[in-house]
């Protein structure tokens, strides 16, 4: 049975052993999992096989950003590894995203979703200003998401605060993946543009990425089950 929940648990761990221990407690019907830079750097691609063997759909979050040829080839390798979703940075530009989309289109029966990161959820207006972007996060997300869509991306990573606007602007089928999800009372940490799981879903998010609120909870499974319950997902 495939996953019933929009939750993607970020397995941000410094060792493969810790990430597998957590994954073994989770249920592939209750969540998908995400492998990011920390875990992939320590474990390499074998972690993808291990998580697939446990029955999980895997989001490979390496946020590729490089010249078009390099990124297209990296995305192709990720798809070959059978990941459910892979991401690039929208700020890499149209040619980089089009080359990546073409690489996946050329694969027979491609099933990997290709998503572009817009403005990181850890950034606010003052962070953008410092890197030379003089518009609001919402305006910049809108511009990058429109570029991502017209460059052949299946969707974007944004904050749930932009989900409603993007859903209206770009249509309900354009996939919105939203980190910066914090249940009421959870520590915000380094995230700036946050929302609760229920608010994010009503705003139009398709998938909710959650790391620390689940992985650092005293009872991760109870927390995940409770978040699913608030979203009406009963597994
Ligand atoms: O692409 C991502 O997944 C991502 C994009 C973004 O804008 N913000 C963001 O937090 N993420 C990732 O989502 C996860 C959020 O983790 P927590 O803040 O612990 O819930 C981390 O693994 C981040 O790398």
Automatic annotation (TrEMBL):
The active site is at 61 (for ompdecase activity), 63 (proton donor), 63 (for ompdecase activity), 66 (for ompdecase activity). Substrate binds at residues 12, 34, 61-70, 121, 182, 191, 211-212. SUPFAM superfamilies: Ribulose-phoshate binding barrel. Keywords: Decarboxylase, Lyase, Pyrimidine biosynthesis. Its EC number is 4.1.1.23. The keyword GTP-binding does not apply. It catalyses: orotidine 5'-phosphate + H(+) = UMP + CO2. One of its GO terms (molecular function) is orotidine-5'-phosphate decarboxylase activity. Pathway: Pyrimidine metabolism; UMP biosynthesis via de novo pathway; UMP from orotate: step 2/2. The keyword Lyase applies. GO terms for cellular component: cytosol. Residues 6-227 form the Orotidine 5'-phosphate decarboxylase domain. Catalyzes the decarboxylation of orotidine 5'-monophosphate (OMP) to uridine 5'-monophosphate (UMP). PANTHER family: OROTIDINE 5'-PHOSPHATE DECARBOXYLASE (PTHR32119). This is Orotidine 5'-phosphate decarboxylase. The gene is pyrF.
